[in-house]
Fold these 2 entries.
Entry 1:
Amino acid sequence: MAYRKVYIALVAVVLGFFIITQGRSFENATEILRDGEDNVFQELKILKEKNVALRREIEDLEAVSSKLTDQNLAISTIKEEIAKYKKLSGKYPIFGQGLVITVKNEISTPWVIDLVNELFSTGAEAVSLNGVRIVNFTAGIDTLPQGQLLINGSILSQPYTFQAIGDGKKLLEILQLPGGIIDRLEANFAKISINIEIKDVIQM
Amino acid sequence: MVKKLTIVFGIVGVLIGVMLTFQFQTSMPLSLDFAADEALARENLFKEFLDEQLYLQDRIINLRGEISQTEADLNIQSETANLEILESLKMEVGLSKVHGIGLTITLQDGKNAVREGANVSDKDLVQASDIRDLINILFASNADAIAINDQRVIASSAIASVGTTILVNNAYITPPFLISAVGDSDIMLQRILNDSLLKGLHERNKKQNILFKIVVKNIMTIPIYSGDLKTNYLNLVNKDGL
């Protein structure tokens, strides 16, 4: 009889060991979830696309440089440059096609940062959060002691609305990839509700 | 009594089986069978792309410098005001060097870290999310300009990872990661050292999973942005007037 008690105790210990191991493995999985899991092929694809984008930028800059040396074209080139950088500066209202993501229920600052990062990473040319466009002088999301998000002096409350100007279809496709940011958000916040809509015109 | 015990053992056995199944189905990164071969192939392919990337980024920096110089040399009186506006806009989007006081933060993988091959150790590696969180704190502390390993970071800079590789502006960076920020170093320092804002990073630093060092600098320079700036989908609401 005493042997049986020992067996049961041993089995209970083994069981406890597995429960703890199991719990820890999920803990670890949660820690790495913020960045997803990718592979070498995707790595190479990104590098290839990056180099294509850099070559295009060089072509554009060479064209600007060339036009500036022509007195007849210099003035219009400066105006084009001003228009381009006005669009990027965040100080002038802009519009364009893109998508709107509405997130209901609370999410934490790191995940908001991740979603904004993902939008820029997948090709969004401009992003706003609850009406605040994210540019150099507004970037940086603070967390207040009560957990609210603060951006550029504005306290944000849910629903959180992320607007992104860019190729809406492409953005949607990448965001919704299995294991992508939307999957990871839903895996981390059980009560979260995410709605994504492609829009012809978004203004920010 | 024996029957009862048999049932107990049976149930416990099933539970262990279920646990084992879950354990082995947990989706952690799995090591590849041919890790060494893959690492070598990856290294060779990468080298070609990265060499080209470095060349292209250098070319962009040079071209932007040439353009700014040409604009400064233009002798068109009617355009003086526009050139000033242009210079100011370039500064706002990150196309001007920024000098001033600030700080540097060095993030280094832990001593036991393995970034390549089959035995990658996630806890001992600096993750893209660590860098994102730090950059966010620096921006929130009103940093004037930020760079990571000499890559200027702007609001639209993506800081991502693909496997264990970290990409800033889609450009490959390797450890140690040196984050430089020009701005009010007291405010930045206070925020970075606040445990509650960077909990995970501070905890891993205390356990020496990763190494984290901050140095205040009296003078430093942040380079101009060397990536592409796309405006294909952006339109100004008010197109007229400058």
Entry 2:
Amino acid sequence: MVDFFSTPLLVTVVLGSVGLGIPVIDALKKERGSNNKLYSAIAFGALIIAIGIVIFRVLSGAVMPAAAFGPGVLSDDLFGSFFAVALLIVSIMVTAASWDYMKGRANPAAYYSLILLSSIGMVLIGYSTDLVMLFVAWELMSLPTYALAAFSKRDPISNEAAIKYFMFGALSSAILVFAIGLVYGITGTTNIGGAIQGLAHLQKDLIPVGLLAIALFIAGFGFKIGLVPFHMWLPDAYEGAPTTIGALLAAGTKKAGFAAALRVIVLGMFVLHPDWTFTLAVIAIFTMTLGNFAALVQKSVPRILAYSSIAQAGYILIGFALAPYSNQALTGSLFYIINHAVMKSAGFLAAAAVATALAGYSLERYRGLGHRMPITAIALSISLLSLAGVPPLVGFWSKLVVFGAAINSGSIVAWAPYLAIAGLLNSALSLGYYAWIIKKMYMEQGPDMTKVKEPRAIAAVLIFAIIFMVGFGIWYAPVLEFASKAVPHFGNIASVISNGSSSTSHPVKPASVASSNSSSATGVRAIAVVVRSHPR
Amino acid sequence: MNELIDFVTVAVVLFAIGIYGLVVKRNAIRMIFSIEIIANAANLNLIAFSRNLHNPQGQMFALFSIAIAAAEVAVGLGIIIIAYRLYKEIDVEEFRSMKG
């Protein structure tokens, strides 16, 4: 039974009613003309209320500790709340910045409504414990962003970006349905807990199907996250979409993809075969290397940020690959995710400020920006330094935790320290193009050095981002503690797997589980050993 | 059980046809067709499994997925109509202004 006062439902009701209400207000209004400011304020208020609800419920202790699984379709746990906070911060920053960016553009009502609806999808992904719910939330997140990417109707670039984004997005969701279908077929349930329990007790001859399903999940989520064989659409889409929407895609939907991947792939990988971790590690190294090398030769700032976000996905994936070996790894990934959400949206929104004030994206436009738009330039510099991992900014601590986990896991898996080495080399490489932008802004003189009026709302958002990146860089403990509390307990997972009739499992007992309890007991024991030897 | 294998085989063939179409065709509408074929292969799988397991969850999910696929196609066709207005063309080879 669904509790109507649980966090996900409250957030859905608040954002959904406002998101559907804004177009209605627009239709009922008598006088014509753009009401951008009104709708921006309404959407901003709704998002603030939503994040207030999430934080209040976390602080008041009404939220369950991070559970890997739940009996229903949604579980009101800390894992979901963590992602809800991270993603709602992104939505709030994007909405506030759109106050300036959408000035004089058509259809503001639909724009803010779509952002709110997409936010609901992102928030629900983190909370969902059922594959059906996960898929519906996934689509609720994706569909509005296709329309948002194409929002500048007269701009061919925006349309091109939207077509590429749509094609790959639709393909990824079709692949996801296929994967969910396979998991359902071999385990008899769509509940994630039940499905993973079923996968752990799989008959020998069905194991290839299980592996195929996990591979399809990696492909489906990988398209949205931008892992390397599936990344080709990403730079075009992030560059071509309106820049504020680029921020929403890079910082929001990508992080929601990580939430879904964590709920499904990592836990499934944990059950099926430890070799999957090596696959993810290889993907992580390719992802960060390719992202960084491709970013070196770009000329447009949003495109550099897009390639940099591919590279950052590689760093985050290190933590996922090491999840079964080190508890610190997933903590590091989550910590990285919330910090990257702020850093990347600050970068894109600074580019949006430049686009609003100077009407251009190319690197040449940024010459002398430190003099022309001081707040934007300092925010962009701090966000770039933080992305590169310069202490004491948040990016440094995220990298420290993730790479530290990789080095610590070296005692269990021999290849783990190489991940840390690859990450460090890549960070050094990435400083090449980040510092290049900073040099253009501060060391070079542009043809026109007059001061430009900075868009006020974007400047306010950027100041918030500076405070976050520097403040939580110096005082990182609370965020790190929140991240470590949000990681699902692996001891819990092992008990669900080994104990078929535990209360957290799905009421519908999978047919194939009942018949094959004995066949894969050894696999379960191996996992239990891994878990027991690394207590939290 | 043999019946199930038949359905799954058809689904896999449809999946392969969809991937083939997506790789080879350059007309945006045909690419949407290909994606729809993949989605329908998945739905066929779900329904076959659901019947085999005597469990209605799969059919319910197939209905969800059909409805969502319809919404997805509506958004996609909207984007393609705008592309046609801009380019007088829906060949994705033409959409190559961004490089790098």
